[in-house]
Every structure is written in structure tokens, then in C-alpha cells.
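ok trying again, last paste got cut off:
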Amino acid sequence: MKPISFLSFDVEALPGRAEKDHVDRLMWGKVDGGEYGVRKICEILHDYNLKANFLIDLSACALHGDKPVAEVGKYILGEGHELHTHLHSEWLVRTWGIKGVFNGPPGLDQLDEDLNLSFLQYSYLKFFQLFGRTPDVFRGGGFTFNGHTVKAAGEVGFRGLSNFNTHRHEQMLAVGQDSANNEPFRWDNGLVELPVDFSPEPLSFDINKYFGWFDRVQDRKKIKTFNLTMHSWSLLKKTGNFFDAFSPAHEDRLRYICEHLSEHTEVMGYSEYLDATVLPPVSLEYFKYEAAALNAGQNLVACNICRARFTLGNNDVCPGCGGRARHRQVVDVLNTASNPFTGQRVLACFANTVEKNSILGTAKEVLNFDVRPLQEVDFQMDIQNMEAIEDESFDGFIALHVLNHVKDDRAALREILRVLRPGGVALLTVPYRAGERTMDTSDILEHYGAENYEKYGVASYRRYGLGDVAEMFSEFFDLRIVNGFDPVTNTSMKVFMLSKSLITS
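nice, full thing came through this time. structure:
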């Protein structure tokens, strides 16, 4: 029976490995007018009809933004490979403003239970936000982990880890004899560990070293798996600290490895293996770790959506999930009361990714629209005239901070009332001022600008008074006002729950 092999590529764009244009250079491999990153790697894999595992480093989102990272991951998925989660935690520690007594770059092995949970939750949710699916396998940057990492990965929903190596981690962890030679095993919380056999950069080694590691699998392992780790920049070579040139020798080695593995092993994806394999739990001889202490006196806040812990900056945006104060305030309301959208069919007026995940995640069906032709929505429609929607066809409706940008807010409320079934609930928020009257704004273009106003009628029309807006909602619906609290900014906001009467005239 042939051994099972895993080809894995960590997809990274770390600042210290390129002088500039980090995503283009280190993920796409763009250099000297050519492209030698994930696209080239996928072309080589295609030549041998092999499936690989790409583990995308989500700290790149904090460094370079979501969009370029999403483009890389979606390309990989489109080529038929498995996409999993990778995280260089040291960059979240830096960008989130966390200070501690760390020994070098703060990998996951130095982080406590709360930070591990925060970072694993970030990885899981960010992956879902970018790719619309849940990840299966997680790998820490530098293969770092501790017991808190294993626990957190299981809690947030991962199925497997690929960090451990018997020799690299021998001072921290020793597993029982059944897994002493780097065999896959199951942690006591059910997660499967897929140990890494050859890393960090096989393409930089003499090919005989590759064969030495492969022979070790053949000779020593009871469960014969061979897990290789490479990178999105593996076809490049360094000058000093930076990858800045294509290496034909590296491509030759990758092709040689692909040819050898295709002939002598069964090449699998991590998820494929997890679906097909049941492993016994491992016995641990020892597992020693100690988290670094965080600096005393720093004010770390915690997001109630994604559990991220960070130092609050100049705005209310969570660096973990992108949630704002109003999102956390709505989630606070739904955490203390039942979510009216659970199991329901919901119509949403531009629910962004945070809202879809944290508020509408338990809905049976969500149709998302906006008057503008946005990529994130399902279709284009004006909330003031929703003629495409049949009467009484939805159980729920949501619009957060929308009505102040609608010219005829009463027309919008009449349409919401029309499309809701009797007993249906609309959840609305608007900016308001307590103790003041609703007033027109002096500059309707202040938020969305002239183009959105001229093309779609979107503008900042008014600032609501709390009493006025509550009175207006009550003209159409049975109104319940609930106070929502944001633990990040320590601010509260009224959330309006509008119910359509069961008795229709």
C-alpha cells in the first residue's frame, strides 16, 4: 500500500521578505515581468494532476487588507486545490496593539488562553468572511502552538492542525510510542494533528535530503504519511533578506518532487484525509508550555462578536471581524434576547459581511439588496419601492443605519410592512439624538458624495430625534426598543424591533 503524501504551501506576504509590494511579490511571485507564485505553482501541480493544500496567512489581512488576500485564495480554490488557514500571530500582536514580555516574535506558543482563542476565532471568521466557507485545518506561523492553541482550535470549529514535528517540538511535547515517529494522531478534544515531516523549505535543499525524509517515512512510520511544507514564494530565491528573483533550480526540484510523489504515493488534501480517516487518541508523555505575561496596565478591549482583544484606536472598528459599535450593540441585544431571524426567511437592505455572520448567521435564508450595484448584494432594489418582492413573503427584515440615507423614509417603512408576514419582525437602527427633534442635514453629500446621490438618491438626509423616530415607527408597527451595549467603546444605542401585527385590516 502506497504512503499518503500531503503537499502544502504556506501563502504569506510578510514584511521582512520583500522590500515592497508584498502580496504581488510573495504570494503571486511577480518579479522581472514574470509570475512565479501561486499561479505558477498551480500550473506545475496541474501538469502532474496533483491536489495541494494551500494555507493562507490571514495576518496578511491586517497588513495589506482583505481584498488582495481574498483574490489569492479565490484563485487557489478556483484551481481545485484545498485552502486552509495559516496565521503569523506576531503581526496581529503588533497591529492590535498588544504588549507583553515576549521572547522574540510572539508566536502562538507564547500566548495565553484568551489570546489564542481570540486569534483562532479571528482566523476562522476571517476565512469565512473572505471565502464563504468554513476552514478545516489550521497552522501557526513558524509552526508555533501550545495547549491553548489546541483547545481554542477545537472550540472555534477547526477539524485539524498541522504544526507538530517530533524533533522540532521535542522540548515542549512528546507523544506516546504509537505516534512517536511523526504519525498523525488525534488530540483529546477530537482534533486531528497532521505532523509536518519536511520543512520549512524543501526546494532550497539538495534533493537527496528530500529522499532521506521520504525514506524515513517508509522505514519508521506505522501510519505512513509524508507531509511537506513549502511556500507561495518557494520558486523565488533571495538576495540578502528579500526574495527578488526566479530560481529555475527550485522549479526543477518541485517538478521532481511532484513526479516522485505521483508515482510512489497517494497525494491527498488534508480535508480529504480527515474525511476518510479515524485515528485513535494520542497519549502524551509530556506537554510543557508557559505563556508570556502581558504588560500590566494596558487597556485591552474585547469584541463580543469575534472575541478579539485589542487596544482601541481612533475609531470603533474591531481589527478582528471589522465590526463597528452598532454591530456589537445589536449582537448584545440578540445575546440577551432571542434572535428573531433564527430559522427565518430574511430580507436585508445591504447587510455587510459582519451583519450576515453575526446577526443573520442562523437565518434559514437571506436575500441581500441595495439600491447601488454592489458586489456584496444579491440584487439591486430601492427600499422605497420593493416591487420585485411579493406581499407578506418574508419573516424578517434588517436595515442598520439605512433610513437616514433614504429620501422618503415613510415610503420605505410602508414597503417593509408590506413584504413582512403577519408577526414578522424588522430590526432597524438609525443614528439619533435623545432629547432633540429630527432635523434635515446641512450637507446631504457629507457621507456618500455626489455620485451616489445623483445616480441612486443615496444621501445623508436627516438626523433623527429619538422621540420622533420612535413615534414614526409606531405609526406602522408594534414597536419595542431595546438598549444595546458595546463593550469596546462602552457606549449604548437603542435598537428598534418592529413587529407587524398579527391582525391585518
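cool. Residues 136 and 158 are 5 Å apart (CA to CA). The chain has 15 helices and 27 strands.
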